[in-house]
Write a structure and sequence with these properties.
This protein is α/β, with parallel strands linked by helices. The chain has 2 domains: 138 residues, Rossmann fold (3-Layer(aba) Sandwich); 168 residues, Dihydrodipicolinate Reductase, domain 2. The protein is 35% helix and 24% strand. The strands form 2 sheets. It has a 9-stranded mixed beta sheet. It has a 6-stranded parallel beta sheet with strand order 3-2-1-4-5-6, with helices on both faces. A hairpin with a 4-residue loop joins strand 9 and strand 10. Helix 5 packs antiparallel against helix 10 and helix 8 packs across helix 10.
Length: 339
C-alpha cells in the first residue's frame, strides 16, 4: 500500500480525500493540521495515524509515497512547490493555484524536478458527467451546439467558512471553487476556450457568490456556466443541446429539486429530450475513488501520462477564470491565446 500524507483535515480532507484514498487502497499514515478540533477528529477517526502541525513537518518524513493538499486555496501554489522541492509526488485539491501564471509556474517546476503532480478534479468521475460523456460519444445528441452546466444552491445566509469570508485574492468565492469544476468539464466536452464573457457579483459573501461565465470554444460550441448561492429554484444541473436532441439532468445531490418530474430513478441518470418526447438515460456509473486508483498506478509506473488529470488542464482552467475576472471588470469579452 502506498503511504500518504494528508495536509488538511477539514471538509475536503476528512470528508472527501481520506475516504477516497482508503477506498482506492492507499494508506493515510500522517495528517497535518494545526486546529485542535481537527487534531481530535483525526485521533478519533484514525488513532494509528500520526498528527503533525504543518506541511513542513509532514515533509520531514522519509516514508511518504504521496502528499495530498486538502488545504485552503490561498496556499496551494506555495505548498505544491514545497512538495516538489522535497521530491514528493503531490495531489493538489482544485484549484492548483490562485491564478494561471502561478499555476503554470508550479507545473513547470514539477516537470523540471521530475516530480509527479496532478490536480484533484473528482467531478470528472461523477455518474452524471460520465453519463453525459457517453451520450455525446454515442451520438445521441448529434452535433453539440450549447452546453449549460449549473451549480446553483440556496444559501440565503452566509456560512462562517473561509470560502465565504475570504476575498477572491485570498482564494474565496465560487469562481475558484465551483467554477473550477464547471470549466474543467466544459473543456473536456467541447475543447479549448477561445473567448470568455462573465458577470460576477458578491451578494452575501466577501468574494463572488453569484457568477456566470460564458465560454466560446474552439469547436464552435458555447458553454454557459453558472454558480450561485442564491437560487431558490436551481436550474437544471446539466442541459446540453445538440442537433438531434438534448440531455437534461436536474437532480443533483442534496440541492433542491424543483422539477420533480425530472427526478432520476434507479439505474438511470438524466433524460434524452426530443421535443415533447423524452427517454430516461441509463447511468454510465462512476466512482470518484477511480481518481486515486489512477494516481496509485502512476506512482507505480512513474509516468506522468498515467496521472488522472494533466496539470496543464488546471492551468488552462485558471486562465479562463483570470479572463472571467477581467471581463467582469471591463464589461467586454476577453479572447484567450491559442494553445
Amino acid at each position: 500500500m502506498r503511504r500518504v500524507g494528508l495536509a488538511g483535515y477539514g471538509s475536503a480532507g476528512r470528508g472527501i480525500h481520506a475516504p477516497l484514498l482508503e477506498r482506492a487502497g492507499l494508506e493515510v499514515v500522517a495528517v497535518a493540521t494545526s486546529s485542535p478540533e481537527r487534531v481530535t477528529q483525526v485521533r478519533d477517526d484514525r488513532p494509528d495515524t500520526e498528527v503533525v502541525p504543518d506541511l513542513d513537518a509532514l515533509l520531514e518524513r522519509d516514508d511518504l509515497d504521496l502528499v495530498v493538499l486538502a488545504t485552503p486555496t490561498r496556499g496551494h501554489g506555495e505548498q505544491a512547490l514545497a512538495c516538489i522541492d522535497a521530491g514528493v509526488p503531490v495531489v493538489v485539491d482544485k484549484p492548483l493555484a490562485l491564478t494561471g501564471p502561478e499555476a503554470r509556474h508550479v507545473v513547470e517546476s514539477a516537470r523540471r524536478a521530475g516530480v509527479l503532480l496532478t490536480v484533484f478534479q473528482n467531478r470528472r468521475y461523477d455518474p452524471s458527467f460520465r453519463t453525459l460523456q457517453r451520450a455525446i460519444a454515442d451520438g445521441a445528441l448529434g452535433d453539440v451546439t450549447r452546453i449549460e452546466l449549473r451549480w446553483e444552491r440556496w444559501r440565503p445566509q452566509r456560512q462562517d467558512r473561509w470560502r465565504e469570508t475570504a476575498s477572491s485574492e485570498q482564494g474565496g468565492g465560487l469562481l475558484l471553487d465551483l467554477h473550477t469544476h464547471l470549466i474543467d468539464q466544459a473543456v473536456l466536452l467541447a475543447g479549448p476556450v477561445t473567448r470568455v464573457y462573465a458577470t460576477l457579483a458578491s451578494r452575501l459573501s466577501v468574494a463572488e457568490d453569484d457568477a456566470v461565465v460564458v465560454c466560446t470554444h474552439e469547436s464552435g460550441v458555447v458553454s454557459y456556466l453558472s454558480a450561485t448561492s442564491l437560487a431558490g429554484a436551481p436550474g437544471p444541473r446539466i442541459r446540453v443541446l445538440g442537433r438531434e436532441g438534448a440531455f437534461v439532468l436536474n437532480q443533483f445531490e442534496s440541492e433542491p429539486n424543483v422539477f420533480a418530474d425530472l427526478a432520476d430513478s434507479d439505474g438511470h441518470c438524466g433524460w434524452l429530450f426530443l421535443g415533447e418526447e423524452r427517454h430516461p438515460v441509463p447511468s454510465a456509473g462512476g466512482d470518484q475513488a477511480d481518481f486515486y486508483r489512477a494516481v496509485d498506478h502512476a506512482l507505480v509506473t512513474g509516468d506522468p501520462a498515467d496521472l488522472p488529470v494533466d496539470p496543464m488542464d488546471a492551468v488552462r482552467t485558471l486562465e479562463v477564470i483570470d479572463a472571467a475576472r477581467l471581463s467582469a471588470r471591463t464589461g467586454d469579452a476577453v479572447r484567450l491565446a491559442p494553445r
